[in-house]
Amino acid sequence: MNTLLLIAGVLTAITALIHSIAGELTTIRLLTKTDLPQVPKTELRAGWYMVTVHLLVSAIMLFVLAADTDQNFLIGKFLALQFWGYGLVFLLLAFIKKIKAFQVPQWVLLFIIAGLIFWGSVR
Asked: What is the pLDDT of residues 44-68, one digit of tens each?
């Protein structure tokens, strides 16, 4: 059992759950109350839940990789790169929009997950 990948999987599964529930309550419902036409509202909600699905599928893959003694480390490194990219997006947008990085602290969790996956995927 690869403990680092297991922890990354658990954190990713929790992130998917939080993204789905808290995101709906704090972000998506606010967007649906705007004057935007229905099609963009639907597209925003679909995009939001596509990320949720991706997080859930990534968590499942991390559990598989953690349990498999003959792991495919390339997949792990690919997942690490994705999570690193997600965190970077938050930091770059904070910089571009001139807000404090910890007003959008998601990057911290995303970088932690990326690090756990990367180090768990090194032979």
From this structure: 999 999 999 999 999 999 999 999 8
